[in-house]
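anyone else get weird line breaks when pasting these?? whatever heres mine. first is seq + tokens for prot A
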Amino acid sequence: MRAQGLLKDLQEEGYETSWRSLDLPYVADREINTLPIVASYCQEIAETVYEVVREGKLFTVLGGDHSCAIGTWSGAYRALRGKGRFGMIWVDAHMDSHTTTTSHSGAIHGMPLAALLGHGDPTLTRIGAAEPKLLPQNVALIGVRSYEPEEAELLESLGVRIFYIEEVQRRGLTACFEEALTIARRNTLAYGVSIDLDAIDPSDAPGVGSPEPNGLRGEELIDALSLVKDSDDLLGLEIVELNPNLDQRDKTAKLASQLLLAAI
């Protein structure tokens, strides 16, 4: 995305930009316990986001899988701690709401939203602060179409609003996004947007690790994100799961940049 001129495009929008890379250590043995490694990485992300938010700057995190969200939004929470809460619009094909006890695969990228809501292994839930980073009444998921019963049970018991893909297709993405904005802004100081590119149909975003058919259309999401552009209470944006090795002629990378520019 940087090679394609993302920073230049942002500068043309009037932003002063800086770029920092935080690399997850290479793990050769996939059978070892990766939880402490990912937790340490998320702690580093949290520290970086904390510093940026504390300085009153807008941030964007461009991540691999969605586990980085634990660090992103824990850092944002710590920066706002004592000032006010923030809401969350979570655009994803999946619920990302397993814990270590409910996960079928043990994959941490299936746990970030649960962790941010205060559920799961303390190694993840206590990053940035011991308490939950998000309140369920201020969280909305958009585009969900692949999940396990345990995740749905947790989110439904908490009262989290879920816009399943069927509702999005029936009502239109913009209408659902407007309602999600209302939820994220209700009695909050700010809100964030976290986008997993697998929310988008593989025909528009082929370069993702967990593609799911029957997804959002890229152009529709670009249009919907115009609702947040220039809003004073947008805390930051996160775009995850771009895998260049799986992309087709940089189609997904270009779309990811378009999404970012549409939102800010």
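and prot B, same format (seq, then tokens)
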Amino acid sequence: MSNKQESVNSGGIVYDLWEIIKVLLVSLAIVLPIRYFIVQPFIVRGASMEPTFEDREYLVIDEVSYYFKEPARGEVIVFRYPKDPRQFFIKRLIGLPNERLEINNGHVNIFNKKYPEGFILDEPYLDPPNRFTSPNIVITLGSREYFVIGDNRDFSSDSRIWGALERHFVVGKTFFRAWPLTRLGFVTDVN
């Protein structure tokens, strides 16, 4: 009788183990595609996006939206650094394809088909709003290029230094701030 009981118990353990493995496999089949193709966690490193994003904030990046629409002016995006694609950067997108940007006398001027005479970019997200931007530069973007810049202009390596960002380097846009809890919430864009 005890031999029968042992074989029933060992069968139960194998069945329980198989059920646990099935649950883990189904969970991975659901979670991994979401993690690698839809949203991705990102930790902010450095001061280049202050005050919008602080060092060590934990963000969730939307990787799907840009399959259906192009990035827009004012969005904060995460991208692979063109000089070393293993690194990820976070910056604000201010220049769109086929535009000409001029940084002159501290202001960002944008020239495009809609505004051939140009307009001064309103930047309320800066601290103080519309703070001085340097150095003076002129850049014309190609059909798949963007101009990105940090909100903390004095501490940012961005398109002012290394040039236009090609579209294929863009990973996604900021979607949700998960840490710190005092700043928890969805990220809104400034267009």
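btw re prot B: Helices lie at 2-38, 159-162. The two ends are 77 Å apart (CA to CA).
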